[in-house]
Amino acid sequence: MRNYIICFVIVCCSCRTTPITDEGPVKVYIRENKVYEIKAEDLFSKIRYIGLDYIESHPIGNIKKTYLHNDTLFISDGRTIFQYDLNGHYLQSLNRRGRGPEEYYNIMDFTVDDKYLYIVDQNKKILLYTTNNEFVQTSRLDFFPASLWPFGEYEFLLTSAYQDDVDKFHIYDNRTLQRVSSFCPINKAEMNYRHIINQKNFYMIGDRLLFHEPMNNTVYAIDSTMEISPVYEFSLCGKNPPSAFWTQKFTSIMDINNQITKEKYCIGIPIYAESPENILLTYRDADKYLMCIYSKENETATQFESIRFSELMPPISIGDLSWNSYGKTNFTVAIPCTSIFDENDSIYDPALAPVLKNNGNPVIGIIELK
Q1: Per-residue pLDDT of the chain in tens (370 residues, 90 and over written 9)
Q2: Are 182 and 171 in contact (CB under 8 A)?
Q3: Bridge-partner residues for 51, per DSSP?
């Protein structure tokens, strides 16, 4: 079992909002400025680590998503949703895998409010439980769901993971679990594999909901009237695929990946975060993934392959990190525990968190993005 450290990135927001102009999206030019590693202190202003209790009957697998609500950590490994307090003490867990009406097959995504836990099942279902894990109701879907996000006080937003669906977004009532409306028709002429399963599609900055997806270099805003508008259009080192590339008929995802590698294109954006000062994103540069920090004020960027969280620790490859958004203006990253502890289970840098022990469970960190 892979062990992780989970870091919560709390993105500071001010009254400045993400710009949308009458002329269209803001064009962001990411110029090549590659380094192998970057210090965490150059990205984040604060990091706090929290060790989780190890419960033998409830081991945590590979983490898919972490969500913080009312000082409770909700952690999903795709099979179970665990709850911990901010001191790392185990509270309870939900594991009802199966194909019955009160069960789920595989957790694609989930969210939480003050009373309820919402689960999107790979088996085309939405399930509603109380935060005490009591089943409330379920509803069948007529499409394969991908990601889930609250949409106003009484609704939530689902994305479709199926290229042949009619619309990309579906709005559901968060109590009846019935569809209210759908919008943004899928362009089936572009069999581009952008529209694939990805639970990291949404990001909040202030009161603005942003949407991004793999193999698409544009970030969009979704407003309360169901209008979707391009906000940023990224030029990634001048190596974006031409428009004609996306209208080709690829035989498989492997085929498109091979073409991207062959042509040495840069495509994004599987991971995205934003503060008033900076944009943090990942993108694919031919055959490898890079992370990039972009300064809005200076319009400068640095791309890097790894992050060094301490001078006493080895740098951690971007490929070994697992990022997730949660809540409002927040972000998480999962780090393998082998990057925090040495072969003797001693922490590389005791100053990070003197009480941490490698018990096989994740460690939670709270981070503030600069």
Answers
A1: 455 555 554 444 333 334 444 568 999 999 999 999 999 999 988 887 888 888 888 888 888 888 888 889 999 999 999 999 988 899 999 999 999 989 999 999 999 999 999 999 999 999 999 999 999 999 999 988 888 888 888 999 998 877 667 888 999 999 999 999 998 887 766 554 555 555 678 888 878 889 888 788 999 999 888 889 999 999 999 999 998 888 787 777 788 888 989 999 998 888 888 888 999 999 999 888 999 999 999 999 999 999 999 999 999 999 888 787 655 556 777 777 888 888 888 889 988 777 777 887 777 777 778 8
A2: yes
A3: 363
Please say whether the beta carbons of 259 and 267 come within 8 A. Answer: no
The encoded tokens of residue 181 equal 């409306």
Close Cβ partners of 112 (under 8 Å, ≥ 6 residues apart): 67, 69, 74, 118, 131
Element (H or E) spanning 256, and its range? helix 253-263
Are 38 and 303 in contact by the 8 Å Cβ rule? The answer is no
